[in-house]
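Reading a protein record of the kind used here takes little practice once its layout is understood. An example of such a record is reproduced below.
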Amino acid sequence: MSHHSTDEGTDEGTAKVAELVDQARIAMLTTMTSDGKHVSRPMALQEVEFDGDLWFFCHDDSAKVAEVRAHPQVNVAFADPKHAAWTSLSGTATVVQDQAKARELWSPALEVWFPDGLETPTLALLKVDVETAEYWESSSSRVRRLVGSIRAAVTGDPGKFPAENETTRLEDR
């Protein structure tokens, strides 16, 4: 049985999601294939302060990019065994060709996947515009759900989301 309660203060929840995402670093990105199956693969999150968007480097000719173009709704999950926490973010993914942004996000560790660095011809960015988030920590032992208010809370711009969206916490799911 789920207990539903809402609370207007989203800043705390969003800050928590940002912290959990930052601690975990490696994500499982789930996309949908052309025949309707879900596929997950590990992705390294780029070092950037979470503002409602997640950024990943990718090859623009990869299967995941083709899947995102056909079905932009994705899920990004982070598990952090060290802190006994997990975070699940859902949103819309887009493939972004932006040299300046790629330069800003680039780190030498990426050369394992992109040996030509920023000169890699197929280099692209995958941007996930996060719409909902769920997180669980063993300390609270309950799932918390943030709906449609992540970016509004981070940017302090409530106009980013319609007023009827509020933070919903679901316990004992």
The longest helix spans residues 11-24. The chain has one domain: 3-171. The chain is about 20% helix and 40% strand. Residues 30 and 39 are 5 Å apart (CA to CA).
